[in-house]
Amino acid sequence: MTQKPRVMIIEDDADMIELLSVILRRGGYEPLPALGGLEGLRNLREHGADLILLDLMMEDLNGWKVLETVKTDERLRQIPVLIISARHHLEDPEATAAHEGQFEGYLVKPFVVRDLLTAILEALE
């Protein structure tokens, strides 16, 4: 039996973490929840992941800072990142443009489950 891909969920909304965890398990993935950016980075450094689902608007450390930290860390930079945010990328064009090429996809909440699973599959390929 092959190991399920491990997906780190870095999000500061516990309900969204639960929803994403259910979707991931049903999609055949192992969810690794992290409440907030700081916990997410700590967990990534400790356990690694095959993919990161990253919220942008978090209280402790915003998603752009988490992304920058991941992409400058030798051990983490190869992990693909999907951004999942309530903010559309056009609401924050400067930040989105500044981080171009550092993330594999950008989904706006509320998202369509099928779109999320397709984006995950593509990011992992």
Notes on the structure:
- The protein has 125 residues and is α/β, with parallel strands linked by helices.
- The protein is built from 5 helices and 5 strands; from the N terminus they run βαβαβαβαβα.
- Helix 2 packs parallel to helix 3.
- The radius of gyration is 13 Å and the shape is globular.
- The model has no long low-confidence stretch (mean pLDDT 95).
List keywords for this structure.
five-stranded parallel sheet; Rossmann fold; 125 residues; 5 helices; alpha/beta; 42% helix
Count of the separate structural domains? 1
Uncertain parts = none
- Helix/strand-derived category reads alpha/beta
Q: Can you write the helix and strand succession as a string?
A: EHEHEHEHEH
Query: How many helices does DSSP assign?
Result: 5
From the alpha carbons, calculate the radius of gyration and give it in angstroms: 13 Å
What CATH architecture would you give? Answer: 3-Layer(aba) Sandwich
What is the averaged pLDDT score?
95
CATH superfamily: Response regulator
Oligomeric status? single chain
Kindly summarize this structure in a few lines.
The chain has 125 residues and is α/β, with parallel strands linked by helices.
Task: Summarize the topology.
Layout: E1 6-11, H1 14-26, E2 30-35, H2 37-47, E3 51-54, H3 63-72, E4 81-85, H4 93-98, E5 105-108, H5 113-124
Parallel strand pairs: 1-2, 1-3, 3-4, 4-5
Helix pairs in contact: 2-3
